[in-house]
């Protein structure tokens, strides 16, 4: 079951909220009523303050999302979790300038909110957020001044915290895109990850020395985020660099449309192949794919005398030898298949590539980078 439910849709983005968020509200109500000693009024203040805080988190995520949508990136939803917001978007552009603008958009929203709150403070002549002393003094008061002070501080901290140059914070992405303007993407990611981990280590150390448990927790969170992100990006970038021709199986066993299923059974048993490109009679043009699933259901329904054309998959993706492995994996995932025929511009069969070929190429590459490097031609 899903633990989040939809609140509303804005610009085609579903805004969802995690069920555990209710616990945060209960906790906020309790905390404020106890620490302020104002009972119900304190509890109410806590709930309103928390809801407004999460509205700020939502606006922050919307900042990223709307900026990303300008670059044609699809954003499906934003989920408000107990620890913040998560915007679900498809892969971000590799253009460092666009990445930079998307990453900056979030924190900038928080700073814009701070500016608006300061103006409201000036208009209402609430001195609380203009002088630091009064801000501290108003903090924790369950009145308008207290609310303004709380939201101003919260937005300031949200903006600043997200600018820390470490994944998964926006600052990590900002740093990476700035580096990527000067070097290649995977190198930029690795350097940004090292800086992020260094920062996490420092935070953990300070937390340890000062005995601040929260800081240690944040440090662990940042450390893990930095290493995970860099690993993911490095894998993706590597797969983007390797071309299909370096990993494909040349001259795979193929079937003809008029062959019977018994031919497919024979080939499956006598070879290591379980997916077969199906070519047109008398030519080498690929017009179908026959996988284990199609073969088994065909055998069950029609017996082994049936023709391949009756059971083959006629809708299937193909790749070109010069396509990147990354594209191949994307096509496989989209079509939910494990093998794709490699064809030339005229749809003639050149080879076949499977998910395990991609894995193998990646593993070989990490051992010996020369293996998949493109020969100069
Ligand atoms: Zn952000």
Q: Can you put this structure into words, describing what you see?
A:
The protein is α+β, with helices and mostly antiparallel strands and 377 residues long. The chain contains 14 helices and ten strands. α3 packs across α6. The mean pLDDT is 85. Zinc ion binds next to α2.
Which key phrases capture this entry?
377 residues, alpha+beta, 4-stranded mixed sheet, 10 strands, 59% helix, binds zinc ion
Percentage of β-strand residues:
5-15%
Q: What small molecules accompany the polymer chains? A: zinc ion
Major sheet description: 4 strands, mixed
Question: What is Rg?
Answer: 28 Å
Report, as a whole number of angstroms, the end-to-end distance: 54 Å
- SSE order in H/E notation? EEHHEEHHHHHHHEEHEEHHHEEH
The total strand number stands at: 10
What is the overall silhouette? elongated
Helix content estimate = 55-70%
Main structural class:
alpha+beta
Number of helices: 14
Write down the overall mean pLDDT. 85
Low-confidence stretches: none
User: Multimeric state of these chains?
Assistant: single chain
Question: Reading side by side through the largest sheet, how are the strands ordered?
Answer: 1-2-3-4
Which secondary structure elements does this structure contain, and how are they paired or packed?
Elements: E1 4-10, E2 13-18, H1 21-36, H2 39-70, E3 75-81, E4 84-89, H3 96-123, H4 132-138, H5 144-162, H6 170-180, H7 185-210, H8 213-241, H9 244-247, E5 249-250, E6 255-256, H10 261-270, E7 276-279, E8 286-290, H11 292-302, H12 308-311, H13 325-335, E9 339-343, E10 349-354, H14 355-367
Parallel strand pairs: 2-3, 6-7
Antiparallel strand pairs: 1-2, 3-4, 5-10, 7-8, 9-10
Helix pairs in contact: 1-2, 2-3, 2-5, 3-5, 3-6, 6-7, 7-8
The structure holds zinc ion (ZN).
Zinc ion binds near residues 60, 64, 162 and 170.
């Amino acid at each position: 079951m899903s633990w989040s439910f939809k609140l509303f849709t804005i610009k085609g983005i579903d805004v969802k909220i995690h069920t555990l968020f209710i616990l945060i509200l209960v906790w906020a109500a309790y905390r404020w009523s106890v620490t302020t000693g104002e009972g119900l009024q304190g509890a109410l203040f806590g709930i309103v303050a928390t809801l407004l805080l999460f509205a700020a988190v939502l606006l922050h995520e919307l900042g990223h999302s709307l900026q990303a949508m300008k670059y044609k990136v699809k954003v499906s939803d934003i989920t408000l979790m107990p620890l913040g917001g998560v915007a679900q978007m498809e892969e971000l552009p590799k253009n460092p300038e666009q990445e930079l603008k998307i990453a900056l958009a979030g924190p900038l929203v928080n700073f814009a909110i701070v500016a608006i709150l300061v103006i409201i403070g000036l208009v209402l002549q609430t001195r609380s957020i203009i002088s630091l002393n009064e801000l501290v003094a108003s903090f924790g008061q369950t009145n308008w001044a207290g609310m303004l002070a709380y939201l101003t501080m919260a937005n300031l901290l949200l903006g600043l915290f997200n600018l820390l140059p470490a994944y998964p914070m926006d600052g990590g992405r900002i740093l990476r895109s700035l580096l990527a303007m000067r070097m290649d993407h995977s190198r930029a990611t690795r350097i940004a990850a090292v800086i992020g981990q260094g920062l996490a280590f420092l935070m953990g150390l300070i937390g340890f020395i000062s005995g601040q448990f929260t800081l240690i927790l944040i440090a662990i969170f940042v450390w893990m985020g930095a290493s995970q992100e860099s690993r993911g990006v490095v894998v993706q970038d590597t797969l983007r660099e390797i071309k299909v021709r370096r990993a494909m199986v040349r001259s795979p066993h193929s079937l003809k449309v008029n062959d019977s299923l018994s031919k497919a059974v024979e080939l499956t048993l006598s070879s290591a192949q379980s997916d077969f490109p199906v070519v047109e009679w008398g030519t080498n043009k690929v017009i179908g794919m026959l996988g284990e699933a199609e073969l088994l259901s065909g055998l069950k329904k029609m017996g082994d005398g049936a023709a391949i054309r009756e059971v083959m998959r006629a809708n299937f993706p193909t790749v070109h030898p010069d396509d990147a492995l990354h594209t191949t994996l994307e096509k496989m995932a989209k079509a939910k298949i494990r093998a794709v025929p490699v064809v030339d511009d005229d749809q003639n069969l050149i080879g076949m590539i499977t998910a395990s070929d991609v894995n193998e190429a990646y593993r070989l590459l990490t051992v010996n980078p020369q293996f998949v490097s493109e020969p100069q031609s």
